[in-house]
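Appendix C. Worked example: TetR/AcrR family transcriptional regulator
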Amino acid sequence: MSTTTTERLTPAGERILASASKLFYEHGINAVGVDRIADEAGTTKKTLYDRFGSKEGLTLAYLRRRYDTWRAFLADYLDAHPDAGHERVLAVFDAIEAWMRANTRGCGFINAYAELAGTGHSGLDVVLEEKAGIRALYVGLVGELGVDAPDRLGGQLALLHEGAIIATTAGNDPGAIALARETAEELVRNAT
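Step 2, the predicted output written as structure tokens:
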């Protein structure tokens, strides 16, 4: 399943999705009801259900939009380093640091997984796709460098990526991303 949001939403649908996205990220998916979302969006529950079908549908749209937004944000950092090289790999860590300035509750996908795991919720597919996408990104970037084991090094970098986000937020460690970047640089230099 592609996470690209291809359907155009009405202005009311956009307001609902924007309100839900803010509330879900700040307070948690399960803690926010559709009444509150509709109220914040200046619409009715009927409009919410007409546009998204259910809270699950709205949650799925939130996760898809968040993934699209993150990928576009990251693309700007990678575009600044179009040639294969160490700096292109490290640009991902620079992107994480900038992203986290506005996303102080950590990874929205990890947060969603904590709430949705074991429920069969359709949003879990987006969470798993985002996590696989991060790993694939690093594997691809180090593959451009011609390293012997891009899957292994890409996996190590993905773990640094995820761990840095968790350590920054849940661990209250403001230096975690810088340390992860430094460690990533060492790993990449040693592999090349």
